[in-house]
Design brief:
Elements (H helix, E strand, L loop, with lengths): L1 H32 L8 H9 L1 H5 L3 H10 L1 H13 L4 H24 L2
Helix pairs in contact: 1-2, 1-6, 4-6, 5-6
Length: 113
């Protein structure tokens, strides 16, 4: 009985995975519009954009390298959370959705074996 619940979990996680991926993309893109944002901040956006086809196709290889590279948006969000009081809400949302995406990817990979 528990096996059946775990086997259906990736299907239930798919909307959460896609939603958190889209939220991280939109939050990073919204930050790039700000004129005071650091010049290297486009790097997490490029990583997230490159991963879109693999995430939509549910490729486990993409899930693996995206989990590793999610450190970029998390570091960006934590840096802004500490350093910039005006962007605390944005940076907290970025850290939250990046962590949610990480856990969705981890559960999907765990159940793909």
């Amino acid at each position: 009985m528990a096996e059946r619940g775990w086997s259906r979990l990736p299907v239930a996680l798919r909307p959460l995975l896609l939603g958190s991926h889209a939220a991280v993309l939109l939050l990073i893109f919204a930050a790039l519009i700000l004129p005071t944002y650091p010049g290297w901040a486009w790097l997490p956006l490029v990583v997230m954009l490159i991963s879109v086809p693999g995430v939509l196709a549910s490729r486990t290889y993409t899930y693996r390298w995206l989990m590793m590279l999610l450190a970029l948006p998390v570091a960006l969000g934590l840096m802004e959370l500490i350093a910039n009081p005006a962007l605390r809400l944005w940076s907290a949302a970025l850290v939250f959705f990046s962590c949610a995406l990480f856990f969705c990817l981890a559960l999907s990979l765990r159940n793909s074996r």
